[in-house]
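Input chain follows. Return structure tokens only.
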Amino acid sequence: MECIGDMYLAAAILSYGAELVEVDKADRKRQKFFFSQEVDHVYVLDNGVPVRVESPKIKEIEIMYFSKRLLFLPNYPDCLRSIKSSIHST
């Protein structure tokens, strides 16, 4: 199981098809999101050209996200709402 501490990154990973297993709400200001599986693929920008990356690890996706190379899918806003809902649910 992989742990992510950034809500927006968690939404991006969710949009690529990973399964959100648990949200650790022990620290109200810093939730942790746990995913059970890897994603099949993601899209990144490489010199301005979208490139498909097969079977990336969650940590690799994290690097792509923070280096501003990860492309967001059209379902990202829905996934972000889902992540926010999981934070605020009891």
